[in-house]
């Protein structure tokens, strides 16, 4: 069951722990410097092409170089950037797309972010969280369609302290399908987290449970826009505490870090430069760049009105994805179901490495008949929303997979790196010499074969198996090809599961 909303007096007794301002976190964003880099006249095409050529050598770009790409809006140069982003993605990541689904665990929130349906002043939001039993039901629903990765999403609230987050992670890992009872196997093998920044002790408690990536989105790097969207007296109003939250995570031993910006709060070019600055900062300070970058765009949400001034057009959105790809070649890029299926299909090729599929963002949405999607747009009398914003892509996982394979993308449910200890600096060592393809393509093929055996519709299975055969044919290393073939047979004929390199 979803827990019933608590009585207000019970909630007010809870306190968030004080922020530990001794941890040495830093504000490394210089607004004046970034502002001086944007809005410049269109640069010389020769210079732009030199920077594109540098990006194609898989060298991360300096912020100043990214700024040049942002200023180059001549159509032929934009096309060249799209095509370079496609080819860079292909060389670093191959044609794989990793799939996941989020689970919204709790939507109580002490903050009042102007853009979010969970903001504290949205009195129409129905507040609750999933207890262990309710969370387990969500997990089983995801497992029964074939998901192997989830990200748990939390509002910021005293109830969602590190112990609560840790317990949620434990519940997810402990919830598995039994083929004898459920008719098919199922397990989540990687749990990522999107929650408020913690202090070092809090991060340690969460890390203990074996999480994958800890994501914190700065929302906007522009100090003025940040202050406008996040009340100064709220917890999230502290820009630096949030900005350098991932350094505290690193100090606590979490080296799989996810950054992001919510596009639509400030000039999109400013936030692209903010993300690139953040990535370079993490690499310089900790020797490890971010594992992923997310770039959600503002969506309509209940109880909020967006200032249209900074909303990002589809064209600029495509540009920003391509420019990010060129600027940070080894960072995974996540494109969520906030965007429509059509736009996602188009942007996938520009360098995206992960997408969610079959997503529901209302609490309990994977097993309950939710009409929250409708409610966000038109709240019905007496009905309230448990959803944070409006989704753009409502396709099922099987439908997304069908589409991926028919467009030449290899779906992957791989969770090997994290489980084999290839994270942080070690991950970078593997990624940079191109080992990723030797490990990731085989793991994509075997995890995709598992999906086809256990969960796919007959149509998806047929097209998926054709794809596996053609991908296998491309593997040049004879020993590796043989080893993949053996494992594919073990999976289909012997029902072996969870084999990875
Ligand atoms: N409460 C935590 C926090 O704010 O960091 C994490 C969860 S929050 C539910 C996850 C992310 O959703 C936010 O960081 C924000 O970028 C995004 N988000 C919030 N409102 C949105 C909206 N209206 N449209 C698109 N994304 C939104
Ligand atoms: Fe709360 Fe996060 Fe929404 Fe802000 S974005 S109101 S912190 S849930």
Fold and architecture overview:
The protein contains 22 helices and 11 strands. The chain is an alpha/beta fold and 501 residues long. The strands form 2 sheets. An 8-stranded parallel beta barrel has the order 1-2-5-6-7-8-9-10, surrounded by 5 helices. Strands 3-4 form a two-stranded antiparallel ribbon. Helix 4 runs antiparallel to helix 13. The chain is globular, with a radius of gyration of 22 Å. The protein starts with 7 loop residues before the first helix and ends in a 7-residue tail after the last helix. Mean pLDDT is 89; it is low at 1-13 and 369-384. Residues 115-116, 153, 155-156, 194-196, 216-217, 219, 262, 296, 298-299, 301, 338, 388-389 line the site of S-adenosylmethionine (SAM).
Topology summary:
Layout: H1 8-13, H2 31-37, H3 45-56, H4 63-71, H5 75-93, E1 96-106, H6 132-145, E2 149-154, H7 162-174, E3 176-177, H8 179-182, E4 186-187, E5 190-194, H9 200-207, E6 214-219, H10 223-229, H11 239-243, H12 245-251, E7 257-261, H13 268-286, E8 292-294, H14 314-327, E9 332-335, H15 341-347, E10 354-356, H16 372-377, H17 397-406, E11 410-412, H18 416-419, H19 424-431, H20 435-454, H21 458-474, H22 478-494
Parallel strand pairs: 1-2, 1-10, 1-11, 2-5, 5-6, 6-7, 7-8, 8-9, 9-10
Antiparallel strand pairs: 3-4
Helix pairs in contact: 3-4, 3-5, 4-13, 4-14, 5-14, 6-7, 7-9, 13-14, 17-21, 20-21, 20-22
Residues 115-116, 153, 155-156, 194-196, 216-217, 219, 262, 296, 298-299, 301, 338, 388-389 line the site of S-adenosylmethionine (SAM).
């Amino acid at each position: 069951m979803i827990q019933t909303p608590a009585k207000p007096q019970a909630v007010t007794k809870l306190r968030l722990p004080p922020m530990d301002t001794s941890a040495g976190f830093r504000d490394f964003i210089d607004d004046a410097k970034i502002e001086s880099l944007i809005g410049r006249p269109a640069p010389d095409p020769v210079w732009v092409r030199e920077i594109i050529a540098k990006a194609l050598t898989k060298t991360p770009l300096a912020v100043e170089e990214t700024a040049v790409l942002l200023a180059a809006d001549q159509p032929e140069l934009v096309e060249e950037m799209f095509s370079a982003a496609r080819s860079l993605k292909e060389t670093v990541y191959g044609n794989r797309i990793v799939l996941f689904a989020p689970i919204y665990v709790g939507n109580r929130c002490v903050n009042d972010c102007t853009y979010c349906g969970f903001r504290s002043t949205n009195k129409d939001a129905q507040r609750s969280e999933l207890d262990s039993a309710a969370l387990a039901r969500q997990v089983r629903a995801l497992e029964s369609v074939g998901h192997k990765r989830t990200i748990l999403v939390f509002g910021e609230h005293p109830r969602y302290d590190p112990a609560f987050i840790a317990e949620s992670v434990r519940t997810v890992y402990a919830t598995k399908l039994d083929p004898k009872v459920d008719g098919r196997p199922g397990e989540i093998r990687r749990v990522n987290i999107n929650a408020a920044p913690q202090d070092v002790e809090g991060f340690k408690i969460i890390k203990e449970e074996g999480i994958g990536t800890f994501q914190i989105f700065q929302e906007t790097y522009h100090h003025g826009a940040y202050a406008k969207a996040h009340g100064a007296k709220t917890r999230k109003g502290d820009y630096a505490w949030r900005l350098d939250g991932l350094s505290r995570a690193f100090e606590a031993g979490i080296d799989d870090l996810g950054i992001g910006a919510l596009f639509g709060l400030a000039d999109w070019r400013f936030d692209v430069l903010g993300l690139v600055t953040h990535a370079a900062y993490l690499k310089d300070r900790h020797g490890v760049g971010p594992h992923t970058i997310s770039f959600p765009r503002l969506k309509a949400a209940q109880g909020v009105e967006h200032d249209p001034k900074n909303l990002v057009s589809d064209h600029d959105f495509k540009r920003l994805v391509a420019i990010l790809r060129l600027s940070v070649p080894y960072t995974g890029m996540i494109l969520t179901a906030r965007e429509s299926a059509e736009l996602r299909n188009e942007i996938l090729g520009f360098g995206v490495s992960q997408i969610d599929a079959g997503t529901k963002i209302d609490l309990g949405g994977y097993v309950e008949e939710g009409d929250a999607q409708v409610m966000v747009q038109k709240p019905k009398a007496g009905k309230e929303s448990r959803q944070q914003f409006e989704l753009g892509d409502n396709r099922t996982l099987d439908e997304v997979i069908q589409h991926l394979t028919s467009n030449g993308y290899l779906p992957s449910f791989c969770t090997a790196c994290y489980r084999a200890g290839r994270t942080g600096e070690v991950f970078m060592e593997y990624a940079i010499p191109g080992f990723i393809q030797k490990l990731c393509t085989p793991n994509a093929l075997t995890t995709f074969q598992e999906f086809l055996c256990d969960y796919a519709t007959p149509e998806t299975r047929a097209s998926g198996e054709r794809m596996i055969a053609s991908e296998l044919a491309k593997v040049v290393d004879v020993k590796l090809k043989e080893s993949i073939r053996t494992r594919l047979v073990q999976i289909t004929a012997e029902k072996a599961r969870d084999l990875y390199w």
